[in-house]
Amino acid sequence: MADRAFSSHRWLHAWRGNVALLAATLVLSLIIAELALRIAGGNTPQFYRLDPDVGWRPRPDVSGWIRGESETYVSMNRAGYRDVDHPLAKPPRTYRIVVLGDSMTEAVEVPLDETYWRRLAAPLAACRGDGENVEILNFAVNGYGTAQEYLTLDKWALAWRPDLVLLAFFTGNDVTDNSFVLGRHAGRPYFELMDGRLVEVRRPGDQPDFMLRKRWLDLRAHTLDELRLVQLARHDARLLRETLKYQVAPDTQVEQPGLDSHVFAPPASPDWAAAWRVSEALIAAAADRAHAAGAAFALTTLANPLQMLPDPAERQRLAQSLGVADLTYPDRRLAAFAAAHGLVDVPLVDAMADYAAERDAALSGDLSRPIGHWNALGHQVAGEALARGLCAAMAAGRLAPPAR
What we know:
By secondary structure, the chain is α/β, with parallel strands linked by helices. The chain folds into 2 domains: 1-40; 81-193 and 256-395, SGNH hydrolase (Rossmann fold, 3-Layer(aba) Sandwich). It has 13 helices and 13 strands. A 5-stranded parallel β-sheet has the order 6-5-7-10-11, sandwiched between helices. It has a two-stranded antiparallel sheet with strand order 1-2. It has a two-stranded antiparallel ribbon with strand order 3-4. The radius of gyration is 25 Å and the shape is globular. It has helices at residues 2-40, 103-106, 121-128, 146-155, 174-177, 180-183, 210-221, 228-246, 270-292, 312-322, 329-340, 349-359, 376-395; strands spanning 48-51, 55-58, 63-67, 71-75, 94-100, 133-138, 164-170, 190-194, 197-202, 296-302, 344-347, 364-366, 369-374.
């Protein structure tokens, strides 16, 4: 009996020792892996935080790698946007431009100096010819719709006292982003037109669980999310979700990830008609807010990938499948809206589509898969076309800031 008890005790002791050894080995392996990732420089932090007014904003002073369509080292400035730091007080003899937009303008797929809006400073200074420096401040954020851009202008961007507010409208998804019925993003603010007046009907911070989620994500951002192993697991999980979601997507198709092909045709449902009306009202509201603050206002419509496929025949096939003559309905509609309201509009679709066709060049992705966000060449072509359009408007006296 005593021998049996002794044997059982020895087995239990050995089992505990094996478990302790296994646990110690696992912990040591995780520490070694964490150190290896840190030595390799694999920092992919959480770049965004929840915000009760606009849903989410970039975290200030965060830098690291973003790995998606490309691998880019990205830094957010002290104000919490992808840009260099700018003093709040405008320097003397400076023409200051504030840019609003979404991921096409935040442009984490290319280095900061290759973004289309950073390319504007030199040509605009040259065409102004008054010796003033042109300073461009970016307030664009990944995933934003026009409602978030309008609120960003009103709550933060105007504090920098710009001379010009440039709103970059991405036709691929901005219309759906402005409609809860079409976009169904619980974390966005939404407006509706009531008796001809814009009314905010959904504010992110008013959702019942918002503050609880915000506190948890803020805590996690400064604890668990700093671990490189957690960052790696988060990146792989996101990549897996996107692969499963788009695994059957051909290289060029009507329904591109993140885009809605209904935008290429006049609205065929009450929901689309309402989304367009709200989008246009938000543009007008942003222009009114800029003018009230003493800034000029300009709109630019950004070409989306399907509009500038290198093969014009492919574009035409897509248009025919949608029952439209071409893929420029959203750009033409916004140009007409801007003209009716006396606003400067610089559409980029023709310049970018022509460039892609004439040179058989991919301005998004590459020639094997010319979709997604603009590549460096796309930003170059867009920047040159936008600079020409803005210079022409300046020469015509249409971008002089109103009296403050």
